[in-house]
Design brief:
By secondary structure, the protein is an alpha+beta fold. The protein is built from eleven helices and nine strands. Helix 1 packs parallel to helix 4, helix 5 runs antiparallel to helix 6 and helix 7 runs antiparallel to helix 10. This is Acyl-CoA dehydrogenase.
């Protein structure tokens, strides 16, 4: 919280020209490589990730290294730019391990504060897009609930997002934070069937696996909390992208769809529903941008900004996706239309890195006034 007698810094909720240029590049790439038919086809295949798409997004555009300092091989940007990338990924629901690898795992490694050693080497590899890493905790783990997932070197962790495609697992144990190669001996990755087929989940079992110790238990726990906080904060931008696509597509459809010789969007009842949704999306944008700006500037109010963003944006994304399905009528219920992808992603995101209810509780705890 802001110190007494010190005015709080005004958050910058607007997009800079550099951020808009980044948005244009990412949107053009996703329109070319991750349109609706391509994403639907990917969910039906055994390899949901398009390696060419990831190579272009991570390496050619440089999105994977936005949070990594230039001296470690990254772009030296901030959470604001990463949030723009996630807005576009949410808008296309493209299957890409950006949130888990380029945000959560990367932020966890950055929190270790090392400029050399295995963590720095891994950061350089993640920044180039040559490798991906995931934090080996259940996808539903909230920032405040971070802790060792294993008491020792062996055990099973379920519900890890993007583990099946990762090269490295960051495993928090009671002994410390380890980097474990997924292709190494003693590592078994079992794919699970998730609700959201565009973000695969897996169970990881370690049996006598060897790993590189990155930090002791205390430093590792602090790093994991920072990684999950960044993940929860920027997940709000993905949810914003989902909601924006759903609103835009619903408005377009109701303009073109005619009933009783007039566009269905001209009926007053539907106008009210879409107007209400527009207000929710605008508010979600403010909350998501505030969280991204707080993380980018290292604001002491970042935990509060993240909790507010998640408490609000989760519900907006789900509501927008539900309205998209319903107002498309029978078309919205078909497998060929992408509306179901957005509903599933929104529902899965609503419990990722903590539920909206859990974040509302965190808001109450963080804003509790001290006793006089």
């Amino acid at each position: 919280m802001t110190a007494p007698n010190q005015p709080p810094a005004t958050p910058d909720l607007l997009y800079s020209q550099d951020e808009e240029d980044l948005r244009s590049a990412v949107r053009a790439l996703l329109a070319d490589r991750a349109d609706a038919p391509t994403v639907i086809a990917a969910t039906e295949s055994d390899t949901p990730y398009d390696t060419r798409l990831w190579s272009s997004l991570a390496g050619d555009i440089g999105a994977a290294g936005l949070l990594v300092p230039e001296k470690l091989g990254g772009q030296g940007a901030s959470h604001r730019e990463a949030a723009v990338v996630l807005e576009e990924l949410g808008r296309s629901v493209a299957p890409a391990p950006y949130l888990t690898s380029s945000v959560v795992a990367t932020e966890t490694l950055l929190a270790l504060g090392t400029e050399d050693g295995p963590a720095a080497v891994l950061l350089g590899e993640l920044a180039s897009g040559a490798r991906t890493a995931v934090l080996a905790v259940p996808f539903a783990t909230p920032p405040a609930g971070a802790g060792p997932v294993l008491a020792g070197p062996d055990g099973t962790v379920r519900g890890i997002a993007d583990a099946a495609a990762a090269d490295v697992l960051l495993v928090p144990t009671a002994e410390g934070l380890y980097a474990v190669e997924t292709s190494g001996p003693g590592v078994a990755v079992e794919a699970l069937v998730p609700l959201d087929l565009t973000r695969p989940l897996a169970a990881v079992t370690l049996t006598g696996a060897t790993g590189t110790l990155l930090a002791d238990a205390d430093a590792g726990a602090t790093a994991v909390r920072r990684g999950l906080l960044a993940g929860a904060g920027l997940l709000a931008s993905e949810q914003l992208g989902i909601a924006e696509w759903c609103l835009t597509e619903t408005v377009r459809h109701t303009r073109e769809r005619h009933q009783f010789n007039r566009p269905v969007g001209s009926f007053q009842a539907l106008k009210h529903r879409m107007a209400q949704l527009w207000l929710e999306v605008v508010s979600a944008r403010a909350a998501a941008r505030n969280a991204a700006d707080a993380l980018a500037t290292g604001s002491p109010d970042a935990p509060l900004a993240v909790a507010v963003a998640q408490a609000y944006c989760s519900g907006v994304a789900v509501h927008a996706a539900e309205e998209c399905v319903q107002l498309h009528g029978g078309i919205g219920m078909t497998w060929e239309h992408p509306a179901h992808l957005y509903l599933k992603r929104a529902k899965a995101d609503s419990i990722a890195y903590g539920t909206a209810g859990g974040h509302r509780q965190a808001v109450g705890e963080l804003t509790e006034l001290p006793a006089p």
